[in-house]
Automatic annotation (TrEMBL):
Organism: Escherichia coli
GO molecular function: aldehyde-lyase activity; L-ribulose-phosphate 4-epimerase activity; metal ion binding
UniProt-listed GO biological process terms: pentose catabolic process
Keyword list, A-Z: Isomerase, Metal-binding
Domain called Class II aldolase/adducin N-terminal: residue spans: 6-139
Any one Pfam family match given in the protein's UniProt record, by short name: Aldolase_II
GO cellular component annotations of the record: cytosol
EC number: 5.1.3.4
InterPro entries in the record: Aldolase_class_II_sugar_metab, Aldolase_II/adducin_N, Aldolase_II/adducin_N_sf
Gene3D superfamilies: Class II aldolase/adducin N-terminal domain (3.40.225.10)
SMART domains found in the cross-reference section: Aldolase_II
The gene coding this protein: ulaF_2
Protein name: L-ribulose-5-phosphate 4-epimerase ulaF
Length: 139
C-alpha cells in the first residue's frame, strides 16, 4: 500500500502544480484490484500541507481501512466507476478553470480531430442544464 499511497499523493500534488484545482477541490485515486482497496486523497486537507501518509485507504464499500482523515467526498463516485469499469486503475477529478468555464457556458465538447471523432460520435454536453429557480438570478 505504501507504493500506491505515494503514487496517489504525487498525482494529487500535480493538480495544483498544473492549475487544475482550486482550494482543496479535486482529487486522484488508484485501486489495488487484488486487495480490493482504493487509495484516495483525504477530504479538506490543503495541498500545501498534505503528505503521502495522509492518503486514505478504503475498501470497495467505502469503509476506511487505513488513514487518519475522512476520504474525499467523491469517494462513492470513484468506487462506482471502479466497479463499473474493471480496466480502470486510477481516476483524476479536477476543477480546472478552463473546464469549469466551458461547462458553465453550456457549450458542447466539439470533436477536434480523429481521436475525438472516434470517441465523440456527436457533440456531448458537459453537464445537464440547470433549470432556473426563484432567486437564482441574484447569486
Amino acid at each position: 500500500m505504501l507504493k500506491l499511497k505515494q503514487q496517489v499523493f504525487e498525482a494529487n500534488m500535480d493538480l495544483p502544480r498544473y492549475g487544475l484545482v482550486t482550494f482543496t477541490w479535486g482529487n486522484v485515486s488508484a485501486i489495488d484490484r487484488e486487495r480490493g482497496l482504493v487509495v484516495i486523497k483525504p477530504s479538506g486537507v490543503a495541498y500545501e500541507t498534505m503528505k503521502a501518509d495522509d492518503m486514505v485507504v478504503v475498501d470497495m464499500s467505502g469503509k476506511v481501512v487505513e488513514g487518519e482523515y475522512r476520504p474525499s467526498s467523491d469517494t462513492a463516485t470513484h468506487l462506482e466507476l471502479y466497479r463499473r469499469y474493471p480496466s480502470l486503475g486510477g481516476i483524476v477529478h479536477t476543477h480546472s478553470t478552463h473546464a469549469t468555464a466551458w461547462a458553465q457556458a453550456g457549450l458542447a465538447i466539439p470533436a477536434l480531430g480523429t481521436t475525438h471523432a472516434r470517441l465523440l460520435l456527436w457533440r456531448h454536453s458537459v453537464y445537464a442544464r440547470v433549470k432556473r429557480r426563484r432567486g437564482a438570478g441574484r447569486v
